[in-house]
Design brief:
elongated; Histone, subunit A; mainly alpha; single chain
Length: about 110
């Protein structure tokens, strides 16, 4: 190619064109981990007599697994109450499941 101003040919550089290196494989996906630790900590701090009390990581894991197990058990019990052919669980089924699973004092607060 001739340059318009000088009339000389432009030379190409001698070094090869560097292409970006392709990544082999897929990107690492972040594991979807559901945790209630933020809410447990906020609940602990909202208590009047536990303002200066902390919670250890092991205890937080135990509380988190307890909550996950309770939610799973409530959902399975509520699904037994659902009418056959109904695809969604309503608040009534959840309240009945909580009344069955929770002790009497806690079951009073289900608003049924």
């Amino acid at each position: 190619m001739a340059s318009k101003k000088t009339g000389k040919k432009e030379s190409k550089p001698d070094k090869p064109i560097e292409k970006p290196i392709k990544k082999i494989g897929k990107k690492m996906k972040k594991k979807n981990y559901q945790s209630f630790s933020i809410y447990i900590y906020k609940l602990l701090k909202s208590l009047e007599n536990a303002k200066n009390v902390g919670i250890s990581r092991k205890t937080m894991q135990i509380m988190n697994s307890l909550l996950l197990d309770m939610i799973e058990e409530i959902a399975t019990t509520a699904s037994r109450f659902a009418v056959h052919g109904k695809k969604t669980l309503g608040s009534r089924e959840i309240q009945y499941a909580i009344k069955l699973l929770m002790p009497l004092e806690l079951a009073k607060h289900t608003n049924l």
